[in-house]
Each structure stands twice: as C-alpha cells, then as structure tokens.
Amino acid sequence: FAGYISQVLKNYTDHACDGEYVSLRCPHRTTISIQSSFYGRIVPSHQLCPSRYPHSYATLIKEDVACSVGTSLQKMLDECQDRRSCQFLVNSRLFGMDPCPGTGKYLLVWYKCRPNEYKSKVACEDDKLRLSCKKSMVIAIYSAIFGRTQGGSLECPYQNLGMPMIECQSANALQLMIKRCHGRRSCSIYASTYEFGDPCYPGIQKHLNVIYTC
C-alpha cells in the first residue's frame, strides 16, 4: 500500500531529444495525468540533448535558445492523458510548424498517476470537509487545493465584491491533508484560514477541493 501510494503521489518528469522515443508509464489501476509540457530549446545543446552532427563554433553561436511551441501540452494530452502508458517518437512534425529549423529540440513532460477510481469533495470556506471509506479501506489523498482557482467552484459560487479574478492557492494544503487523513478510514477538517493560512488577498472567498481514493 505504502509503495503504491508513494508512486501515485509522485510527480514524474520525463524528457526525450528529437529522434528519440518518449515513454510514460503509470502503476496498475492508475492512469496518466499530464501536468505540463514543453517542446523546443531554452538551454544550449552542450547542457541537454547535444546535436548529433559535428558543429563548427560559428554554428553553435547561432543556436536558438529561445525556441518553443505552444501546442506541446495539447499534443501530450491527446497522446497520453487518461492512459496507463504511451510512447511516441519526438520530432518537430508532431507539433506542427517547426519553431526553429536547424536547431535540435527536446520534449519535457511533467505528469502524475491518477487512480482509476477517485472521488472529489469540495468544502466552501469555513465549512467542514468530511472524508470516509468503507470498512476495511483507508483514505489515500491524491491532491488538495485550498484557495481560489481561475475557474472558480460550482459548489461555492463567489459573491462579486469587486475583487479581481486571480488564482491563489495554499502551498501546504496537500501536506496538511495527507497528515490529517492519509491512511485513515475517516477524517474531517475545516476549510479555514486557521488550518491552511490565507494564500489570497483579505476578503477573497476560498474553497477546499480534495481528490482521494479508498
């Protein structure tokens, strides 16, 4: 159980140079959840993915290190999201137009492994959040957010008090939920600034959103 949970909670990072295969894989009963992705080059080739061809010093000077495409996240979602594993060859044709011809590029991807069966619970600010599992099962926390997200929360509609629509989240929400609930059959916690601190401007309404499995 402990080994499975540590794999599920872990943030995975993978990379592949042009012409190499990228391969993402998650443990049994979990699927890939893409967090972020980058394709292009922002560091020189002697630091990451050296060129396969001999370059003169003059050519190296011209290497583009401010090169990226905006389609890499969507492509990773299309190829890998909600699958247990995925593998494909990395090259510029995969992402549409080549942003910097002549410069060797690479793909960086950050992902987590999400349980196939998971539950989501929301508590509005100052309300109590209760989590529970059936007999002989215990709680495994997958993610926790306390604050205000860009899309808001349907369960906790915000009153428009002239506050700007900004995103603000507590940095310790996940650690606190793990400490309070992880490995227990049931637990409860108040979605309050007393518990989580206040990551937002004073007066901004917040909520607690927890994703877990039993």
Automatic annotation (TrEMBL):
InterPro entries: Lectin_gal-bd_dom, Lectin_gal-bd_sf
Molecular functions per Gene Ontology: carbohydrate binding
Gene3D superfamilies: 2.60.120.740
Keyword Manganese annotated: no
CDD domains reported for this sequence: Gal_Rha_Lectin_EVA1_EVA1C_rpt1, Gal_Rha_Lectin_EVA1_EVA1C_rpt2
Signal peptide: none
Domain SUEL-type lectin: 16-114, 123-214
Keywords: Lectin, Repeat
PROSITE patterns per the UniProt record, alphabetical: SUEL_LECTIN
Matches recorded under Pfam families: SUEL_Lectin
Name of protein: EVA1C protein
